[in-house]
Amino acid sequence: MEKKITVIKGDGIGPEIVTEAQKVLDKVAEKFGHKFVYTDILMGGCSIDKYGVPLTDEAVEIAKNSDAVLLGSIGGNTSTSPWYKLAPNLRPEAGLLKIRKELGLFANLRPANLYPELREACPLKDDIIGDGFDMMIMRELTGGLYFGARKTENVDGVETAVDTLTYNENEIRRIAIRGFDIAMKRRKKVTSVDKANVLDSSRLWRKVVNEVAKDYPEVELEHMLVDNCAMQLVRDPKQFDVILTENMFGDILSDEAAMISGSLGMLASASLNDTKFGMYEPSHGSAPDIAGQDKANPIATILSASMLLRFSFDMDKEADAIDNAVKKVLEAGYRTGDIMSEDMKLVGCKEMGSLVADMI
Amino acid sequence: MEKKITVIKGDGIGPEIVTEAQKVLDKVAEKFGHKFVYTDILMGGCSIDKYGVPLTDEAVEIAKNSDAVLLGSIGGNTSTSPWYKLAPNLRPEAGLLKIRKELGLFANLRPANLYPELREACPLKDDIIGDGFDMMIMRELTGGLYFGARKTENVDGVETAVDTLTYNENEIRRIAIRGFDIAMKRRKKVTSVDKANVLDSSRLWRKVVNEVAKDYPEVELEHMLVDNCAMQLVRDPKQFDVILTENMFGDILSDEAAMISGSLGMLASASLNDTKFGMYEPSHGSAPDIAGQDKANPIATILSASMLLRFSFDMDKEADAIDNAVKKVLEAGYRTGDIMSEDMKLVGCKEMGSLVADMI
Ligand SMILES: CC(C)[C@H](C(=O)O)[C@@H](O)C(=O)O
Ligand SMILES: CC(C)[C@H](C(=O)O)[C@@H](O)C(=O)O
């Protein structure tokens, strides 16, 4: 099969980690007889430096005309980088928000699971970890506070800022359906997270999720308040299968869950629209402090490439091959600095990429 | 000194734990020659049952005319209790939001610290706990998404809900000043948490906090994005002294921090206005499942009474006496069920209250 992949290397460690993911994709192509045609576009700080904006319309067009997007990471040091002196809508992150909206990527899947090999890196006590945990956070990505109207104005001499949190039933229904669909392929449990004791948008959320649930009688649905969920993730992460939530709550909870897994450098994510199209990226950031030093962990990006093959190209065997290769490399004791522990073999970004590619 | 305390026992375990806190307050009164005059008001489910509303205006008046409020907990089981069949503005929680607003309690202080005696109950690995941690979350309590306009309406046949997140510079300034004031009495570090890469309200928040910081040259200020803060609390809670944040972020992060401390049953909180007046309550909920069984841990409420004496009545010696009594009871090995561990002595709610009172 021939497929077009838009590649966004981005800023910081982005270029290094994407290069390793492409190394792995190339190996898959060779082995399984596919052809992946890459087109690079700029997004984030590197686009600001070249075009003055974090994402051009031309770049969006290229992405739209491809079959999937592989993204590294964008942004720099918010205190020192000149990018953060610009108006908010010109900063690196604005590029990310723009591409999500323009491509209609409303369904953000963020797995957070414990790698048995990385148990030691998990911040939680052993009796809480138990046999490990494995959850999928399904975050709504194109609504809520991120895309509502906002303004800052002077009201009777007092500077006042307003952001709006809006959801309509259609936006909630389509993400809920995705959440239940995924749950059917997993352990058939959905925890819908909201703040229904305060927010109207959460009450609508809960109502629509209850309606959607009727079509999935096999799936167990529970509702949980966001503050309680922030606690439960720490107290007993094993209780979760699919967490279904709106944009801002999903931002906070998915980062908390990622850190709890202790495997941030290993966590991939997918952002999907109504078709097979999707954008795939590591859950971690651009780590400008270690950029260009061959120290970054490319595994999250490699696993994002695996998600790309599975979700956008229906290449399950190929995705399994990548996942297994990663597993074998970890079992063989190879570690980048972020997941290093005693008696393991420390490798750099490039070597880690080659090790995984060689295992395929 | 004679002082008027409004007592809100509330729902669930509320009555039991408040009774024990009053036992301790009475002992303090006797020992230090004060007189505490209590007036009970109803709030939450018990008020709904009697008056049809979660908080009457008469009850608010009584609270306003007292020197401080001691609150147990309100609310019931959200799936089974008939209170949750009512319209949102008639549910138990609406009483809590109303009293916060009516009394102008904009500054919510939520300490989250590890009790050395309860190290085992902390969910984090030993090397992360280190010598323990001790942070104070300063949450804005009368603005943001909690009190902005909201509506649910039919827009061209599609049900749509809108909540508004509003802050003006004055609301931000007064809570920031409180945060820096508290930091001056602690380790002189403020972490201001926002989502300035997305929200206008967060950008205004950051700007005003920077302005306020100029008056506190001794205090180290850092800004942190809310998603990162949710991670850092798990990764390294020791890094925090005062966390300063808006209403919804504070709700989520304070619960996460409380759970991380492993001492939820021990954590008190204060909600203050512009004067010495304040409302004091445990950080935990109403635990309807164990209500009336003499199993609840009254320590968080007892420590809330201690905060009441310290912040509203300037009774530092008296507050120290309570804090020390709690410490001694823990050192002597007494534990309620929620904090029980091997070789300790299990006691009920009443006995725990008596033990603390006797130590004073
Ligand atoms: C960079 C930022 C705008 C973004 C978000 O908040 O969505 C990031 O935190 C994420 O989670 O992908
Ligand atoms: C009961 C609820 C409205 C309340 C809040 O969200 O503020 C509670 O969670 C709290 O933190 O005091």
Can you describe what's shown?
The structure is a homodimer of 360-residue chains. In chain A, helix 7 links the parallel strand 8 (189-194) and strand 9. Chain A is globular and about 60 Å long. In chain A, 56% of the residues are buried. In chain A, strands 2-1-3-12-11-4-5-10-8-9 form a 10-stranded mixed beta sheet, sandwiched between helices. A two-stranded antiparallel ribbon of chain A has the order 6-7. Chain A has 2 domains: 1-103 and 277-360, 3-Layer(aba) Sandwich (Isopropylmalate Dehydrogenase); 112-264, Isopropylmalate Dehydrogenase (3-Layer(aba) Sandwich). The first copy, chain A, contains 12 helices and 14 strands. By secondary structure, the first copy, chain A, is α/β, with parallel strands linked by helices. The two termini of chain A are 18 Å apart. In chain A, helix 1 (14-32) packs across helix 10, helix 6 crosses helix 7 and helix 11 crosses helix 12 (349-358). At the A-B interface, strand 6, strand 7, helix 7, helix 8 and helix 9 of A face strand 6, strand 7, helix 7, helix 8 and helix 9 of B. Strand 7 (158-168) of chain A pairs antiparallel with strand 7 of chain B, so a sheet runs across the interface. The complex binds 3-isopropylmalic acid (2 copies).
Largest sheet of chain A: 10 strands, mixed
How would the global form of chain A be characterised?
globular
The overall strand count of chain A is 14
- CATH H-tier superfamily of the largest domain in chain A: Isopropylmalate Dehydrogenase
Attached small molecules: 3-isopropylmalic acid
Which residues of chain A form runs of ≥5 with pLDDT under 50? none
How many distinct helices of chain A? 12
CATH architecture of the largest domain in chain A: 3-Layer(aba) Sandwich
Integer-rounded radius of gyration of chain A: 20 Å
Strand content of chain A: 15-25%
The structural class of chain A is: alpha/beta
Order of helices and strands of chain A: EHEHHEHEHEEEHEHEHEHEEHHEEH
CATH topology (level 3) name of the largest domain in chain A: Isopropylmalate Dehydrogenase
Task: State the oligomer.
Answer: homodimer
Span between termini of chain A: 18 Å
Helix content of chain A: 40-55%
